[in-house]
Amino acid sequence: MSVMRMDLADTGSPEGLVSLILKHEPNFRVPVPIEELALQLEIEEIAELETEGFEGGLITDSNRSCGIILVKRGVNQTRRRFTIGHELGHFLIANHVPDEDGRFLCSRQDLQTLSAKEGDRRAKMEVEANRFSSLILMPPPKLRECFRKQPSPSLEHVFQLAEEFQVSKEAMARAYADYHPESLAFIIVKDGKVGRIYHNRKRFPFITASRSKPVPQGSLFYRTNLRVGTPSEINERLPDLWIDVPRGQRAPTLSEQVCLQKNGYALIMLWHEECDEEQEEREDMTARDRWRAQQEKYQKG
Ligand SMILES: [Zn+2]
């Protein structure tokens, strides 16, 4: 590695930092060597966190001349990697100020914070550190390469990429929804109830299913033949199970895929395909024309 911390000076945003790091490290491999990168960027040491109730920490001084990353003992590899990415984010983002002098302490909840209310400075720092960690562990150009190779979305692909990038399935589902060219959403289900929802807000319509309410009746989730760890087939469902379909408009196609997981968890992928004129025109094409158009699209992509 050759990137230096001074190469990143004056860059305040997670996106800016990650794109600079990638510019200096064009041959970044996957899984991203996050510990090596932290040490390269002047983190002195990655040590065990002794403070109960926290997931990670960063010891530093006010002008960030040094940094030690702390990670909770005994966590699995994917969590450890995400925490290191998060703390490295606090270290590199210049305007992040610790609560106590010279010390960041981050809880499990901090590591899941994805949005902050206006004026909530602390939450905003956590959001940015999480964004940095996601971007550096799953660099968008690397993800796009994977999507070009395998353009059809599926939970199998999410799980495969989670392994390849050494991130949790949930972290990968979040990045997948953001960067996959198809319009996708992922729903985390716990004990039959709708939990966290990840989707690209620009492309995926508003999801009407409410948090903490049971998964809507009619979902594939209620199939009786599902097995833990094995994704179901991808199947079309009535779109208004999950989204609002305005009256008088042609309904889009909404497909679902479900995978039950351990401890009462499940992951649902929703795939939304707009029914627009362009698509109707495409239906007149021959299979071969469609194949060609696809190829062109991916080559450009
Ligand atoms: Zn934090």
Total domain units: 2
Structural class based on helices, strands and sheet pairing: alpha+beta
Biggest sheet: strands, sense, closure? 5 strands, antiparallel
Chain oligomer state: single chain
Element order: H for helix, E for strand: HHEEEHEHHHHEEEEEHH
C-alpha end-to-end distance: 28 Å
Strand order of the largest sheet: 6-5-9-8-7
Q: Provide the low-confidence segments as ranges.
A: none
Question: CATH topology of the largest domain, which one?
Answer: Beta-Lactamase
Which distinct ligands sit in these coordinates?
Answer: zinc ion
Rg, Cα atoms, Å = 21 Å
User: What percentage of residues falls in helices of 4 or more residues?
Assistant: 25-40%
Account of the 3D structure:
The mean pLDDT is 91. It is built from 9 helices and 9 strands. It has helices spanning 14-24, 34-40, 77-92, 121-137, 140-149, 155-165, 169-179, 277-283, 287-300, and strands spanning 45-49, 56-60, 67-72, 103-106, 183-190, 193-199, 235-237, 253-260, 265-273. With 301 residues, the protein is of the alpha+beta class. The protein folds into 2 domains: 5-137, Arc Repressor Mutant, subunit A (Orthogonal Bundle); 159-296, 2-Layer Sandwich (Beta-Lactamase). A 5-stranded antiparallel β-sheet has the order 6-5-9-8-7. The protein has a 4-stranded mixed β-sheet with strand order 1-3-2-4, with helices on one face. The structure holds zinc ion. Zinc ion (ZN) binds at residues 86, 90, 104, 106, 110, 126, 129. Residues 279-301 are annotated as: Disordered. Residues 66-174 form the IrrE N-terminal-like domain. It comes from Rhizobium chutanense. Pfam families: Peptidase_M78 (PF06114).
